[in-house]
Specification:
- This protein has 192 residues and is of the alpha/beta class.
- It has one domain: Metallo-beta-lactamase, Chain A, CATH 3.60.15.
- The protein is 24% helix and 22% strand.
- The chain has five helices and eleven strands.
- The strands form two sheets. A six-stranded mixed β-sheet has the order 1-2-3-4-5-6, with helices on one face. It has a five-stranded mixed β-sheet with strand order 7-8-9-10-11.
- Helix 4 links the parallel strand 10 and strand 11.
- Helix 4 runs antiparallel to helix 5.
- The longest helix is centred in the last third of the chain and has 14 residues.
- The protein is globular.
- Keywords: Hydrolase, Metal-binding, Zinc.
- This is Beta-lactamase.
- Its cofactor is Zn(2+).
- GO terms for molecular function: hydrolase activity; metal ion binding.
- It comes from Natronorubrum bangense JCM 10635.
Length: 192
């Protein structure tokens, strides 16, 4: 099961996904709100924290979560404070009941990862793409529009057109033909 613990939070934060099942994982920790209590209301322990990338709005609560649950954090770049273990490009990662492939998708930030499970039909897109053709900012440090476009196209090449759910770093998740939203993001990123 996938629950967005930041839903309805009135603060500058990313979405925070609690994925339960065989391996209970928190995807991103958000920022500027108490995420520990909503986790505790649902589970007794976490097996891992997995990061899509390390912008402050995604990792502001990282130390609090690590301390509360005595858990390690996994991300692309272990040189970033708080990232204990590296996830390599195309590495398989267990999230909940399913295996996901990690895709290194820079352009918004150099350490950005997306996670895709063909069996679950789920994409965790981080800040690469959003609903209705929106896409990650490239005006921040490490942002690069041509690289972002390459990353979006790479995800399009990997994901199945029958994708059932796309969980994004901000805004609502997409369950109505999410593949089309990724296609539109690819087109919009070229026009902006």
């Amino acid at each position: 099961m996938i629950a967005n613990l930041a839903q309805g939070v009135q603060a500058f934060t990313s979405n925070v996904y609690l994925v339960t099942g065989d391996r209970t994982v928190l995807i991103d920790t958000g920022a500027n709100f108490d995420v520990v209590e909503p986790i505790r209301e649902r589970v007794d322990e976490l097996d891992a924290v997995v990061l899509t990338h390390t912008h402050r709005d995604h990792v502001g609560n990282l130390e609090a979560v690590k301390a509360a649950f005595d858990v390690d954090a996994w991300g692309y770049d272990t040189s970033v404070d708080g990232v204990d273990h590296a996830i390599a490009d195309e590495e398989t990662v267990q999230l909940g009941d399913h295996e996901y492939i990690a895709l290194h998708t820079p352009g918004h930030k150099n350490d950005h990862l997306c996670f895709y499970s063909v069996d679950a039909g789920v994409l965790f897109a981080g800040d690469l793409v959003f609903q209705n053709g929106s896409f990650g900012r490239t005006d921040l440090e490490e942002g690069d529009r041509p690289t972002l476009i390459e990353s979006i196209d790479r995800v399009l090449d990997v994901i199945d057109e029958d994708l059932t759910e796309m969980h994004t770093g901000h805004g609502p998740s997409v369950s109505n033909q999410p593949y089309g939203h990724v296609e539109l993001s690819s087109q919009m990123a070229r026009q902006a």
